[in-house]
Amino acid sequence: MAGRLRGAALAGCLGLCGTALALLAVVLLRAYVLRPAPGPRVWGRRPELGFELSARDRRELKEALRGAIKIQTVSFSPDDQNTTALAEFGNYIKKVFPAVFSAKFIQHEIIGEYSHLFTVQGSDPQLTPYMLLAHMDVVPASQEGWVAPPFSAEERGGFIYGRGTMDNKNSAIGILQALEFLLRKDYRLRRSFYIGIGHDEEIYGHKGARKIADLLEARGVKLSFLLDEGSAILDGFIKGIKAPVAVIGITEKGALTVKLSVEKEPGHSSAPPKETSIGILAGALSRLEQNPMPNMFGHGPEIRTLEHLASEFTFPLNLIMTNLWLFSPIVSRILQQMPSTNALIRTTTAITMFNAGIKTNIIPPSAKATVNFRIHPSQKAEEVLEIIKTTIADDRVKIDVQETFDPNPISPWDNQAFGVQIFRRTLLDVFPEVSSVAPGICIANTDSRHFAKLTDAIYLFNPLIIKPDDFLRIHGLNERISVEGYEKQVEFLYQLIQNSDIKKLPEPHANSHEL
Ligand SMILES: CCCCCCCCCCCCCCCCCC(=O)N[C@@H](Cc1ccccc1)C(=O)O
Ligand SMILES: [Zn+2]
Ligand SMILES: [Zn+2]
What residue stretch is flagged as signal peptide (predicted)? Predict the structure, then answer.
């Protein structure tokens, strides 16, 4: 009997060990044998014009950006913008980019009073046009806490400091600068393209980008791709990856902004009720913060980012990332630890405004707060609103939706995706240190969502190498760009325009079935 039991135990143990060994074999096989081959595509044609800058070009390029930063194009709220500065920005670009404004094949239109649309006519009408999008408005900046005043565009240690240096005058001015340089070298464009520069992106883009999109739609325009801000070349964001990796947004999160309010009878503070409007609202807000929206890891494109980058990770993370079918519970727990990666895997909750109270000895008649949610690509605004109501679970808290939109559809990412191949080619040309190009999610929102009817190929990417510390500067203190980084951005755009002039993508290399 005892022998039979020992035999059964041994057989059980062997079975378990066998399963463990088989699992290990699959894990190793996927990590080391079945890795997608990142083989290069064969591009016969190189950009015609190299990006060699004279000392004068360099100075001009830097001063053009610095001049733009000094114009205080601040969007405070949907009905409060610095319109004098917005108009000044229009005059400024006319002065700084004379070749762009005098070329016969470039049409310039002002849309919604302050936004700009450039139609750059290529010589081959058979080629589907593309679009480069940027915005000139900026969020407000406090005067305190900056090493140099936010609209001084001061240069320190190789960096230009100022609001808009990364978000997003670097793109607005950078695109025009790249085109200006190409025109001065008599480059004749083959593929038409549009440049859109919005003036109210930071307050939803209804009067700028939305109107540009409506106009192009009315003209029957279809785009082969659209490129806007929203992601970057990430350096040091992902534990276990040493080299910088280009993560190109193939979708952006949705958004839902709700106003919460509680009204109660005012009175003398010496005989207070059990709960005041402030206490009730604070409780509701605390419940929202303490109960984050569900972790959706694996339901959106975030998993594709990790799969693409798997072979970039050092051991043993490479084993884990190539085997997400097994390790995703661990990975999703790790991702939720840092705010920037937590934002990739769930709808985020941010309490952004709170107003209440009149005087120290008056029971507050009302308390109001604003909560801003950024919706994960696998959820819809309606579903998020239901979760909010259930979490607050208090009828005394009035919930008003201020603004909402669902996440963008997911743009194509494969060997036939024209835009993706052009970005990849251009990244290889301009940033040889970038080891991988992966699809990702833009965790914030951009003007690009207004263009969904013109193309299904919307990409969010700024050709800038950014570190976690830089990310905090966007909408924060000491926003800055390195002069070298800005030159690289202009070079990227200069080569991108030339690379896009290719008629047809080259056939994929025999080994490069995946990007
Ligand atoms: C695989 C690891 C990835 C780690 C993620 C790190 C992400 C780093 C990305 C850096 C680029 C950030 C670019 C931000 C663009 C910001 C654009 C913006 O500020 N938009 C406004 C628009 C808006 C929306 C709603 C109301 C008013 C304005 C925004 O707040 O989203
Ligand atoms: Zn922006
Ligand atoms: Zn912004």
Answer: none
